[in-house]
Structure formats: C-alpha cells, structure tokens
Amino acid sequence: MGSRNPATWAKREREQALKERRDRKREKKSAVAAAKVAAAEGGAPPDSGEPETNGAQTNGGDANGGDANGADAPDAQ
C-alpha cells in the first residue's frame, strides 16, 4: 500500500516542480542555441532579447559622458 503521509506528497510536489523547471530551462537553452545557429547560417545577428541602449551608460549617465545628476564637469574635491 502507498503512504498517505502529507510530507511525502509535499516532497513529491517539490520534486515534480523542480523537474519541470529544469525541463523548461533545458528547452530555453536549446531554443537559444538553435537561434544562434540559424543566425550564423543566415548572417543575421542573434536577438539577445535585451533593449538596445545606443551607447548610454548603465549607471544612468547619458551618451555624451554627462554625470547622472546632470553635471558635465567631474566632481572636484
């Protein structure tokens, strides 16, 4: 006979969720790899899924080298 212990059911549900997450991650990786191969064969750049920044810095500064708070000169101390 099978066990009816609630902890057993919870463990099984956790393991099943983990397996599904791993499967989704594996599918996503294979899709990205296939897209890279297709892009290499077709000559089109692969789509990374991230928006283009057009040279803007990631720390909030603008593309002209300005400071994040709007000052164009370096801070003098």
Gist of the model:
The chain is mostly helical.
Q: How would you portray this structure in words?
A:
- The protein is mainly alpha-helical.
- It has a domain at 1-41.
- It is 48% helix and 0% strand.
- It has one helix spanning 6-42.
Radius of gyration: 25 Å
Order of helices and strands: H
The helical percent reads 40-55%
Mean pLDDT: 76
How many E-type strands?
A: 0
Separation, N- and C-terminal Cα atoms: 77 Å
Global structural class: mainly alpha
Q: Choose one word for the global shape.
A: elongated
For the report, how would you describe the main beta sheet? none
> Helix count?
1
Low-confidence stretches: none
- Taken as a percent bin, the fraction of beta residues is under 5%
Topology:
Layout: H1 6-42
Give a quick set of tags describing it.
single chain; 77 residues; mainly alpha; 1 helix; 48% helix; 0% strand
